Amino acid sequence: MDAITNEFNKYFAKWKITLPEENIQKRQKGSIFQAGWKINFIFGIKDDAKYLEYYAIHRMTNDRHIIIYKNVEKEHLECLESPLVYSPAINERQREHNKQNRRVKEGLSYKSLV
């Protein structure tokens, strides 16, 4: 897990955020609340390759949903979109936006990332 951990820690170094050592050793899911970030993470194995998947939220920027594989390759996944403000007469674009957010949230909830 060293390469994965290093890549995560490098990305969040600016905020002095690192993965908790206990979670790394036990490959246990967890959450980090620091420097305005809320980061939920899980460990997994896909095609015999270990990975770390995380969903990071900060009110000053867009969400991030990323998988880091053992070879340090990253996969950027879908995130929740900002809520839309709309009039009572909701249009098709707004319906699709809300439908997309529900779908993404269900997937994130299933993995305990939100």
UniProtKB/TrEMBL annotation:
Top-level taxon in the UniProt lineage: Bacteria
Biased composition (Basic and acidic residues): 92-108
Region annotation Disordered: where it falls in the sequence: 91-114
The name this protein goes by in its record: Transposase
Organism: Nostoc flagelliforme FACHB-838
Top-level taxonomy: Bacteria, Bacillati, Cyanobacteriota, Cyanophyceae, Nostocales
